Write the structure tokens for this entry.
Amino acid sequence: MRRVTILGLSVMLAFGSLLSGWECGQAPPTQSPQRRKAGEAFPPLPLPATPLRRSEKKNPPSPPILVGKVICGSDESWTRAENDVDNLLKVASSQLSFAYRATRVNLNSFSFDPEEIPILYITAMEAYSPDEKILPRLRGYLEQGGFIWANASSGSPAFTEATVRWLTRLFPERNLYPLYVNHPLKTCFHTLDRVKIMAEGKESDEVLNLRILNLGCRAAVIISPWDLGCGWAMHTHPFGTRYIPSEAINIGMNMLVYSLAWIESGKFFGQMPLYAEPVNKKSGKIYLGQVIHSGDWDPHPSSLGKILRQLGEQTGASVYLEKITVDLKKDNLKDIPLLYLTGHFNPRFTPEEVKKLKNFLHQGGTLLADSCCGSQEFTDAFTSLVKEILPQGKKVTWTADSSVYKFPIKIDRFLYQEPVEKPPLEAYFLSGWPAIVFSPSGLGGGWEGIARPFTPTLVPSQARELGINLLTYLMNH
């Protein structure tokens, strides 16, 4: 999508080839640029003329800190590619017209304020786990909008396994996932799918291997089980598993662009209001039951409450704002007229859950499904699910002239954050009524009111308008 040739990369790679035989260690120091005023470039006049006064070197203001490289263990365990993230930021500075810098961070004295350092970078070959007293502070740092990049130096399985263990303790309610095919980390700057790696000295072509932990829709933790650091530092080794330098730089650029774009969105995580009803009485009110599943089922917790409140304000309908969760393994669906299903990843329903959904539809219920952030993985999984639960359903794509886009708010065109050609809604009809309505365009994130950068989703204002129209349509059908 945004494939850009990195200026100067060929020169850096040529330099990197000289380092190919190095063991990871301290890189040669880079010479600081000398800055003088323009007039200082002229040589002094020859005597006996009066010499011009020469100025001292000027120290420009330091660029802001973006990345903190975490001190984890002895110097030998985390400094093998000492200038890795520094080099990455130099390349980014030449390509993105910004200047950021990295610093070293001791977690025992860090403030854990993302405003101070937005990204913590952890890398080592040995297994590393933060102290137990640090873990709650790391969780707070991530929930306030911070990022963690974890890189397995030389593709160390011990580092990756230890990282997964302490992240599981940090967020026992969340899972780590591989990137889905159209995840923004694959597309936000360079288009990355197949990449070149070196495994034990042999080059091969592989699928990009990153793991993410989502907070909301944001990949707050990015784990690379294959080494990025040596590639950023422009050298490689015949042992271990690592990305070749050019690929490592491209991946790092995507990580930088993604993190910079999502910093503001991350600050809102956990700050959106969750609505509570003073009286647990749903009779006579419009409400939805949100389906629990294993594929990141609640990426935008406040979205249903917000869209129902806006529906009530727009139409005067009586709505029930409190979230109602539905576990298909055990809950009875007889009092739920409308189910809501969303996520980024495959829900992986059991045969019993699929059977319950099928019965729900044939008894007159409606399923509203929404591919969060326009995830292709969720879209593909849901398409397969429809074939199981409603094989006889008649599929209709609601084009721009459909009535669902005309009342109570008139929508004449669709506004997406990224280019999308098809309309945002499709329905599957059973005996004349819409038993299933599906959006591949991430409605729920827009209902929450927070932009999802680099995703093929409707802009938040239009997602809200479309949500009001859709719920109004379903009430009347």
In short: The domain at 289-475 is CATH 3.40.50.12140 (Rossmann fold).
